[in-house]
Amino acid sequence: MARAGVTVERLAEAAAELADEVGLENVTVSELARRFGVRDASLYSHIRNAHELRVRVAVLALAELADRVAAALAGRAGKDALVAFANAYRDYAKEHPGRYTATQVELDPETAEASAARRHSDMTRAILRGYSLAEPDQTDAVRLLGSTFHGFVSLEQAGGFRHHPRGADESWSRVLDTVDVALRNWPAHASDADAGRAP
Amino acid sequence: MARAGVTVERLAEAAAELADEVGLENVTVSELARRFGVRDASLYSHIRNAHELRVRVAVLALAELADRVAAALAGRAGKDALVAFANAYRDYAKEHPGRYTATQVELDPETAEASAARRHSDMTRAILRGYSLAEPDQTDAVRLLGSTFHGFVSLEQAGGFRHHPRGADESWSRVLDTVDVALRNWPAHASDADAGRAP
DNA sequence: CCCTGCTTCCTAGGACTCCTAGCAATATAC
DNA sequence: GTATATTGCTAGGAGTCCTAGGAAGCAGGG
Questions:
Q1: Keywords assigned by UniProt (chains A, B) (predicted)?
Q2: A29-59: string of b/e by CB count within 10 Å (b at 16+)?
């Protein structure tokens, strides 16, 4: 009988596929074994436990997403870069909901270090070069971008915007406009936050 | 033998408690039965399935959170209200991580209608009265607030800000400043987004 | 007081998932 | 072609979800 030829890479890829189909929480060792035509016990030669499966999806997704963002960012700057960056995230989440969810699983320090997580924050910082923010404002801005984009995508995915006539796309582009303005009018201190306000 | 006295209310409360302790995904019918000193099969007289358990936690959390937000908002306006609103969310998420997670589970239309979801969007809109935004800008702004606050809280909860010297609290208050400025400089159209920009 | 009926809780058991232990088969390296 | 490491197997235990059907506690009216 020929072997199924299971490897961690093929396993992670299949798990990612499955996550997109049925959601990350329904990625199961048994189902994966079924898809490879193998008994579930056999998979434990390749992975330690079910959790590792999800971690591997996370690492894979983080890398894929970083590649996409990098491609989207190439040759762009300023608001153009901001929009491309944001759309890369949102489009990826739409195409690969399970993988995107995996993006949020907590990784232990070593795994995180070996992952594309650093590339993500580096690229976010690269965008902010167009807005000339010094530390620690830059870090705060990185967090603002991450929060806003992730929050929007996450709420949209959870169906939060479905029961209202206003389309999510319109809101999205308006949010991007607003973030762009906010980054340019970055408040120096809380007390003079309205310094740049129009009369 | 005396009865355990299980009711859906006590069940939902216990499930919420458990969710805060071990995470929503680990809220299990068996564990709950164990805590009530009852066989797991007995709980199915009160709930239909495990999913309903999570839905009930969601509804409970939504209501609790709405109460808190309402209390925080009382007597405040403008940026004051914005900050109180945002802190109510973040504090609740810190105190009740499992319940907060439940807040994001998708509810079927009837359940959603009967839940406090409407109160949430109403209160968000109430805050925006301080910034005089007409529709559809108001809806977009509601979504911006929801996205930014939920995104921040969600990333913070997932440990995204832990591996960096800059404290999450500082970034949070800076994010609030920025959102306040953004709401006041709301871009009329994408093309003249920088109308209110300082020289 | 006891009977009737409703609710709560039980036992029994099936299906599925996760995971371990130990063994067999197969590919690879020499 | 044989040795070795890898890959997959059977067997089985523990935990969870859920159904079916029956018993025990609790209410009300006679």
A1: DNA-binding, Transcription, Transcription regulation
A2: bebbbeebeeeeeebeebbeeeebbbbbbbb
In this prediction, residue B189 carries a pLDDT of 66
Give me the CA B5–C1' C1 separation in Å, rounded: 27
Q: Is the CB of B17 less than 7 A from some atom of nucleic acid strand D? A: no
Please check the confidence at residue B187 and state whether its pLDDT lies above 90.
Answer: no
Contact residues, B window 88-147, toward A, CB-based 8 Å cutoff: 104-106, 109, 112, 136-137, 139-140, 143-144, 146-147
Q: Which residues of A touch B146 (CB under 8 A)?
A: 151, 155, 160
Pairwise CA distance, residues B43 & B6, whole Å: 8
Q: What is the CATH number of domain A8-192?
A: 1.10.357.10
Output the pLDDT for position A129: 92
What are the residue boundaries of the structural domains of chain B, listed by start? Answer: 8-192
Rounded mean pLDDT, A106-126? 94
Query: Can you tell me the distance from the alpha carbon of B175 to that of A105, in angstroms, rounded to the nearest whole number?
Result: 24
- ipTM, interface predicted TM-score of the complex: 0.90
Q: Determine the pLDDT at residue A196.
A: 38
Tokens representing B47 are 């709930």
How many residue pairs from chains A and B have C-beta atoms closer than 8 A?
157
pLDDT of A187: 87
Q: How confident is the model at residue B163, as a pLDDT? A: 87
Chain mean pLDDT for chain A:
92
d(CA B24, CA B58): 10
